[in-house]
Amino acid sequence: MIGKFVGPHYGADNTTDSSGATVFATTTASGGCSRRTSPAGWRFEHIGGPVKTLTASVKIGNLFDNHDISDYAGDAANGDPLFWRVPGRSVFFNSRPRCSSGDRPGPRRRGGALARGRGGG
Questions:
Q1: Under 8 Å between Cβ of 31 and 67
Q2: Residue 62: Cβ-neighbour burial (10 angstroms; 0-12, 13-18, 19+)
Q3: By the number of CB atoms within 10 A of the CB, which of 73, 79, 91, 102 ranks highest?
Q4: Is the dihedral of CA 35, 91, 50, 47 positive or negative?
Q5: Has this prediction a pTM greater than 0.70?
Q6: Are 66 and 35 a contacting pair, CB within 8 Å?
Q7: Residue 46 CA: distances (Å) to CA of 56, 104, 109
Q8: Distance of CA 64 to the CA centre of its chain
Q9: Sheet containing 2-6: which strands, arranged edge to edge?
């Protein structure tokens, strides 16, 4: 399991003063947030048939489905603060079969441009 913690951070909002100059003010604070990711992988060998090995993996992002505030996004037109949230849980699956060398398609080596080593003929 992989864990990530981001401590509290602050959003700087810009306003203008009476002379029209931009003034940056720390107006909004957001607490820390944490996420957990859980990856796992397997490798199966000597399966039989044309498949020599099979590698499979799964990764679950945001394992505990945490939706904490992750960042300050600015202010709405009415002045209310806007925030970004941690994305919800995600699941990724990956598989990769490896075939025997005799069953794997490859480039043609007889005739054609590959055999002559040139592109035109």
A1: no
A2: middle
A3: 73
A4: positive
A5: no
A6: yes
A7: 15, 16, 29
A8: 17
A9: 2-6, 33-48, 51-61, 90-99
For residue 117, the one-letter residue type is G
Q: Which helix (H) or strand (E) holds 112?
A: helix 112-116
Q: What is the pLDDT of residue 115?
A: 47
Place of tokens 């990769």: 96
Helices and strands of the chain, counted as H and E runs: 1, 8
| HEC secondary structure over 35-84 | EEEEEEEEEEEEEECCEEEEEEEEEEECCCCCCCEEEEEEECCCCCEEEE
Q: How many residues does the chain have?
A: 121
Number of Cβ within 10 Å of residue 33's Cβ equals: 19
